[in-house]
Amino acid sequence: SPVPQNGIFQYINDHQDEYVQRLKDWVAVESDSSDPEKRDLVNHMMQLTKDFIVKLGGKVEMVELGEQEHPSGKKIILPPVILAEIGNDPNKPTVCFYGHVDVQSAKKEDGWLTEPYTVVEKDGNLYGRGTSDDKGQILALLHAVEAVNTIGIPVNVKFIIEGMEEVGSDGLDKLVEDKKDTFLSNVDYIVVTDTPWLSKKPGITYGARGNCYFILEVQGARRDLHSGGFGGTVYEAMSDLIYLLDTLVDVKGHILIPGIYDAVAPLNEKEIKLYKELEFNLKDLEADTGISKFLHDTKEELLLYRWRYPSLSIHGIEGAFSGTGTKTVIPAKVIGKFSIRQVPNMNPSVVEKQVADYLQSKFAERKSPNKINVTMVIGAKPWLADMNEPQYLAARKAVKRVFNTDADMIRAGGTIPIAKNFEEVLGKSVMLLGIGGPDDAAHGQNEKISKFNYIEGTKLYAAFLQELASI
Ligand SMILES: C[C@H](N)C(=O)N[C@@H](Cc1c[nH]cn1)C(=O)O
Ligand SMILES: [Zn+2]
Ligand SMILES: [Zn+2]
User: Fold this and answer.
1) Does the active-site annotation cover 37?
2) Average pLDDT over residues 307-335
3) How does pLDDT run across 21-48, given as a tens digit for each residue?
């Protein structure tokens, strides 16, 4: 039955068990977008999401995006994207929320203490892959819409929910372009519900790094070789690859590719002052990660290098022997994976050429007869907004109402591949309003969301909808 406006928070408190159960149901679906074998599960997750939005009274369209060329060379059908809406009053503003229900891979043997796809509640936390990134955040939003709708939705709400974010949002840029004069034509604000806070204090995010993801193949012999028979007589593909990967970045995290820092926007004093005022403690980061020494010693420097400068990370090697035991093989073909986080005003196409030219020249110096191939498979641009836009004000008011504190205005080191496209194509304000905690371990072992963030975050989204109606 309808609840009065001030009863919405009570309504949310009263329904928390149901919210936790739904998170359990969603996490149980292993919607890993990187694995072609799991594509049916991603599709199933899209269907579950659709069914829930329909149950909330939403109008839902599932848009097919066609085929994806998987990095393995396989062609597979992309999962559909959900375009949905609740409310269509021309006198009200329209906010479009974006998020994703795919996840990064997770296996118990990676070092999880519990089964990754079974939510376990312990010490006030809900553990499981996707609890924070991003199923928990999407669910908090949907539950908020449901709660607010008990007294009538104060703004028109649209949703774009996808199942390929973790691998670069394949096909979504074209969809945004295609829908700019139809589904997206009346959207006033875009809100991304997929980001963590910097500390226990709620944060509102006005910038995110982009990402250029590279695949570096080295092909040696036609087949794997016995290292007894061939060791000492062949140029090994793995040695070439490790050499090349080691030329990319130095021990202090400085990227060695010529020109890579050229486009980085110059730093100004105002920014450093902003960072100084944020709640963030290196000791908390040490405790969370078990790292005793970071590349930077002060909070301001650490944030600069997380948000404001590019970084290069080496992620893995496909084709390398990685099992237990002592196999004595010389792998014939190995594929290195690395990515470079992008900041304003870097341009992924320029970075693509800088990386390819550099690796080719380093490889030529080595005079190995093996073959290399460099491909950029994701080229997501960085995004930075004006934190004084009206929806940021509504978000600040909502934070104050729910948490009785001022929000920290923060940036994200991670990437929302579609964020910059929203801004460029629609010309509308984009904001990241997330409810993840700073130590949620997104992408890592034992990912979690605290029950506090999940439930109070639901209230935050509810309050935001109401505040947005009155700005
Ligand atoms: C911030 C968001 N939850 C996320 O994890 N995004 C991914 C997107 C991505 C970038 N390159 C490949 N995928 C990330 O930042 O790693
Ligand atoms: Zn995410
Ligand atoms: Zn993620």
Assistant:
1) no
2) 97
3) 999 999 999 999 999 999 999 999 999 9
Cα(43) to centroid(ligand 3), Å: 18
Helix residue ranges per DSSP H, 115-155: 135-148
Does position 105 have pLDDT exceeding 90, yes or no?
A: yes
Which of 220, 91, 353 lies closest to 361, judged by CA? 353
**403-441 burial, b for 16+ CB within 10 Å, e for fewer?**
beeebbbbbbbbbbbbbbbbbebbebbbbbbbbbbbbbb
Say whether 408 counts as a known binding-site residue: no
pLDDT score of 1 more than 70: no
Q: What is the pTM of this model?
A: 0.95
The number of the ligand 1 atom at minimal distance from the alpha carbon of 412 is: 1
CATH match of 5-209+382-469 with 3.40.630.10: yes
How far apart, in whole angstroms, are the C-alpha atoms of residue 109 and residue 94?
A: 45
Q: Which CATH topology does 211-264+309-380 take?
A: Alpha-Beta Plaits (3.30.70)
Does the annotation count 439 as an active-site position? no
Report whether 194 belongs to an annotated binding site.
Answer: yes
Structural domain boundaries in the chain: 5-209+382-469, 211-264+309-380
The pLDDT value recorded for residue 70 is 80
Ligand 1 binding residues, C-beta < 6 A: 133-134, 165-166, 168, 194-195, 211, 213, 378, 380, 414-417, 442
